[in-house]
Design goal:
single chain; alpha/beta; eight-stranded parallel beta sheet; six-stranded antiparallel beta sheet; 12 helices; globular
Length: 452
């Protein structure tokens, strides 16, 4: 009982600090503040040995044992990094019995290697309890019509409770068919989220039932610019039109970006924090491929789909947890308008502004330590910049803010009134992990007592 009272007393404090920095507009259907964790189900975690059919972790083309129960068991790993959405690789029964399950045989059945329908219902329930959405990849079968696939999608919405679907556009299927699909599933649930990967044209999202597209062109540019230092990020910012897109730097069809970094004789542990900061602080929804948090390496095809290692070093994981919490709590990073303040030789400073909130991102994609002076006219006079990674405080001096960033590093500053350290920001960055640790400890103790 004492533990219960402690939790109840502590929660209002946590909720109060959370409300101070939560999204400013709760009435609109928010889609820009999503962040996506993309999982190949077979390669994530083996949570149920009973469905290990012909598993061989030494064969890159064989099943490796990952399943839906494994995602349930490791979902707090995803939650702690701040992700709001899990994108699942195809989970449907397939004709070729391949671990990617993309040649769909039956849209109403689960690949038995991954579990059963009750398992996916449980995953949806557990995910929703911690405010994570579940979106499966929905491959288009060669002999299935879009009308038939829409009926199956509606069944998944009503019976399982999934939150949307990810589709890849086929060249021979006109965009109008995909828009019709989106319209039909939204007739069942208007909040269902439809994402389309399109490589053969553009789409007018303003007049479409499709919510977001995947910006594959941006991926090509990012991989060319961010694989080594001393390259300008200005072309990347110019390639971002609007906010209605998902952006990614890794996916199942290309070599891991860690592989590209190593090819450039760079150290992945130093490059990834800068790359992720760019992804999380520029327009669009970041979609992060599983294993990025441990700098998973791999070439093309199955070499890209290595088994997730939960025993790896957690330094990058901890960075992603901090970065994810920052993005989730500052609307300017998800809904703000970006304005480039400075860029030269790979060193960039840009502002994100939403209503009365401004965050300043300093990204040093160069091989030298950098000092940049930004006029207060470009930010705001009589303010101060509070660093959300390191806690650095920069005060205006002689009409400028002097920002110093080490090589290949980044910092996110929040612009605040000139009144000393803002305890709200300190609370967000320090108290949230403590509250969750306390809460998880309470649940563990309660579960331990109930097992006697």
């Amino acid at each position: 009982m004492k533990h219960v009272l402690a939790v109840l007393l502590f929660i209002p404090i946590f909720l109060f600090s959370f409300q101070l920095v939560s999204k400013a507009d709760d009435t609109k259907q928010v889609t820009t503040d999503k962040s996506v964790y993309y999982i190949i189900v077979d390669r994530f975690y083996n949570g149920d040995r009973s469905n290990d059919i012909q598993v061989n972790t030494q064969d890159p083309l064989a099943y490796h044992g990952g399943d839906i129960k494994g995602i349930i068991k490791r979902i707090n790993h995803i939650k702690k990094m701040g992700f709001t959405t899990i994108l699942l690789s195809s989970i449907f029964e397939s004709r070729d019995d391949d671990y990617l399950s993309e040649d769909v045989k039956d849209y109403y059945k689960i690949n038995p290697h991954f579990g059963n329908i009750d398992d996916i219902k449980e995953l949806v329930r557990v995910a929703h309890d911690i405010h994570i959405q579940i979106i499966p990849d929905l491959p288009i079968s060669q002999d299935g019509s879009m009308d038939e696939i829409a009926k199956a999608a509606n069944w998944w919405i009503e019976e399982v409770g999934v939150d949307g679907f990810f589709l890849k556009k086929h060249l021979e299927i006109p965009i109008a068919e995909y828009d019709k699909f989106a319209h039909e599933v939204k007739a069942v649930n208007e909040h269902v989220y439809i994402i389309l990967q399109i490589d053969d044209g553009t789409i007018d999202l303003e007049n479409s039932s499709i919510d977001r597209v995947v910006n594959g062109d941006l991926t090509v540019h990012m991989r060319a610019v961010l694989n080594k230092p001393d390259q300008s990020i200005k072309p990347l910012l110019n390639a971002m039109e609007g906010k209605a897109f998902w952006k990614y730097i890794d996916d199942p069809n290309i070599r891991r970006f860690t592989y590209e970094i190593v090819q450039q004789n760079q150290f992945p542990g130093e490059r990834w924090p800068l790359i992720l900061t760019f992804l999380y602080t520029t327009p669009g929804v970041p979609a992060i491929f599983y294993g990025t948090e441990i700098a998973l390496n791999g070439g093309e095809g199955a070499e890209n789909h290595r088994l997730m290692d939960f025993r790896a070093d957690d330094e990058l994981i901890e960075f992603m947890e901090k970065l994810g919490n920052i993005r989730n709590h500052y609307p300017s990073l998800t809904d703000g308008d970006l304005n480039l303040l400075y860029e030269e030789g790979g060193m960039a400073v840009y502002a994100n502004t939403y209503k009365d909130e401004t965050t300043i991102v300093a990204l040093n994609n160069s091989s030298q330590n950098q000092t940049v002076e930004i006029s207060s006219d470009l930010i705001a006079p009589n303010k101060q910049l509070f660093g959300l990674f390191e806690g650095e405080l920069i005060k205006e001096k002689n009409g400028t803010y002097v920002i110093q960033i080490n090589q290949e590093q980044a910092e996110i500053f929040v612009v605040q009134n000139h009144t000393g350290i803002n305890m709200m920001n300190v609370t967000v960055m320090t108290m949230i992990p403590i509250v969750f640790m306390f809460f998880y400890y309470f649940l563990w103790k309660r579960g331990k007592k109930s097992s006697y």
